[in-house]
Amino acid sequence: MSKPSLPQGTRDFSSDTVRKRNFIFSTIRNVFELYGFQPLETPAMENLDTLMGKYGEEGDRLIFKILNNGLNDPKNSSKATEGFHKALEGKSSPLLTERALKYDLTIPFARYVAMNHGQLTFPFKRYQIQPVWRADRPQKGRYREFTQCDADIVGSTSLLNEIDLANIYHSVFSKLGLHDYRLKINNRKILLALAEISGGAEFLTNITIAIDKLEKIGIEKVKEELSQRSLSNSQIERIVNYLNINGTNQEKLLKIRALFHNNMTAEEGIKELEYIVSRTTTVNIDIDLTLARGLNYYTGTIYEVKAPDTVQMGSIGGGGRYDNLTELFGVPNIAGVGISFGVDRIYDVMDELQLFPQNVNIGTKVLFFNMGEQESWFAYQTMNKLREKNIACELFHEASKIDKQFKYAERKNIPYVVIIGSNELDNNTCILKNLAKGQQEIIDIAVLSEKLV
RNA sequence: GUGGUUGUAGCUCAGUUGGUUAGAGCACCAGAUUGUGAUUCUGGGGGUCGUGGGUUCGAGCCCCAUCAUCCACCCCA
């Protein structure tokens, strides 16, 4: 047996990390609950055909597929061989694999709604916090197993939902202390209108992929890319005019209205943006007309959250409105809108900016020193009384040197130690020491629990 | 999927043009001293140099493969 190791792009989380992650999870969960969302969990794996074709060609390639069992059974051997040959041609085949690890939370949610729409109360607001898997090459801020926190509302076209979701973003990031996040908003209808006036609706994907890169590669490169995607110079000119729109949210809305004259599709999108932006003035939301987002099921509002500029990290959240997500599963006319938090990236950003509160890593509150046989047994009984009052404590396991016991407390980030030696035992007292302050006091054993609450 | 970086003790890293038994600091363990984490002193355990091949009289060092890592592209959270 060689040295044990982990699969590429996966991680163990040590207790420190788990505590910090839980701080993020509980913050998000509490806010979701505050806005009336209900929890949902779905399996780690889905049927492959539930997932395939929902994330584009690139997405399909990144889905972790699970090999069928029983391929070694002689009576399956011809099927297995056939399936294998298809795999060599780059096609996945149910003969070889018919299940896969989930790639995001939205599609499994859509599958759930399609299966249960008869029982659900609409509008249905659910939140979901679960790991997802992508067969991507790992790098900074990118893992093969990571956790998403999604909140979606289905069965409602009200823009109040969009306003709720913007407020959720603001509330969560404020509570996490991540004040410099940037929430961007755009509308797919505007992008669709842009495609219509500069080439045709079929260019939507090509155009969005190109303009999405504006911030990263600059206007000249975007022009190059657009011409490579077979757009004419006059078409590119229109797009450049669009991309040149700047200013405050209000100014952008004015300019874009002028640009599109009376284009019906654009006007719809503009009205929606206007509505949302005018009602979310407390959440520092920015209209970003270059925001496109890759997932092609979005049809209206789109959101993206960027990490503070001081850290090298792209998107830490995103979402949008979709008209007909469940139609893919045979249930039409259920509209929805949702957002997602990328916990792993939020963790990395918060860690880098040292935004975690000091006390997230406190587990045990008090360590009782072990000062000998009789002393420690008395300490043990005292400790149990504290536990009844919900104070987490532990007794050092043997009567070791003092400095060793101190080190243990320090490493476990235990804020208090209690020392009961022979003197204290005789007097019914104990020494309570606050390790952070380095201060200690001798107190009556009877008042110990009050001091620690 | 494409390109590059790195891999030596628990941690951070040395290790010369290839040359005896692979080192340091910190950490750890034991002991001396001490009713309060220090300092000091003495002793100790630990590494198949990521893994597998190859070249060589000889490989931590050179070559190939592989795994992992980090980074960039693509795409994305």
Topology, number of strands? 16
Tally the helices: 18
- How helix-rich are the residues, as a percent range? 40-55%
The CATH topology annotation of the largest domain reads as BirA Bifunctional Protein, domain 2
Gyration radius from CA atoms, angstroms:
28 Å
Task: Tell me which oligomeric state these chains represent.
Answer: single chain
What is the number of independent domains? Answer: 2
What is the architecture of the largest domain at the second tier of CATH? 2-Layer Sandwich
Order of strands in the sheet with most strands = 1-5-6-11-10-9-7-8
* Terminal-residue CA separation: 50 Å
CATH class of the largest domain: Alpha Beta
How would a textbook summarize the main sheet?
8 strands, mixed
Instruction: Please tell me what the overall shape is.
Output: globular
Looking at this structure, what is the CATH superfamily of the largest domain? Bira Bifunctional Protein, Domain 2
Unreliable stretches (pLDDT < 50, length at least 5) are none
